[in-house]
From TrEMBL:
GO terms for molecular function: hydrolase activity. The keyword Cytoplasm does not apply. Pfam families: CN_hydrolase. It comes from the Bacteria. Gene3D superfamilies: Carbon-nitrogen hydrolase. This is Carbon-nitrogen hydrolase family protein. Keywords: Hydrolase. The keyword Hydrolase applies.
Amino acid sequence: MKICVAQTEPIKGDILKNIENHKKLIDLSIKNGSDIIVFPELSLTGYEPELARKLATTKDDKRFDEFQKISDLNKIIIGVGLPTKSETGICISMILFQPNKSRMTYSKEFLHPGEEIHFVAGKNLPPITFKNNKLAFAICYETSIPEHSEKAFKNGANVYIASVLNSVNGVNKDINRISDISKKYEMVAVMTNFIGKSGNYDCAGKSSIWNNKGVLIEQLDNSKEGIAIVDTNTQKTIKIQLDKTIDKID
């Protein structure tokens, strides 16, 4: 199967504009044969904790119907990030759109210290099966929790997908951590990150792909939007970086 990570520059708090920019990268991934595309942490809003309560919604929000239609038509899984409402508060979540299936919500269980001011711990999904692969997900700080990746392995995952916001100061630590996870559990691993500014962070880009030996085999740069794709059967990769930021809608 072909796994695609999208590297984006978020538009602060503007879900509709971010949807349009997501769709352009999704279209690019489809043209290159992707079976799944995943976006960074809170990709539809940017990482803006102070806006989370105002922007929080649910997986059934009608604004996301287009993602479901694209998924159904092209047989592609789409994972987008946003704050979601739960019974206990606001979660940091990824909505997963699967072809001709109900939408699913993966919520960050292990919050980064300080996030509990604006968010509550949510519920992880177990790995999902698609085209004979078992895909495990992680949102940012969860990659630093050993029991999280161990649980993914024990549940049979052979692919580890990390949706993150990594700053210039923190990205290399996370890259080394995910490489170690990949090597330890012999999983193909990918990481998708922002560029530009989000919240108070200068985002580092460097969205990455590792083979199941923990070897970095593809990486985007630190300043351009784009996609990177890996074929889990052949380990071959594709990298497409845009010469300029995707045109934003006025």
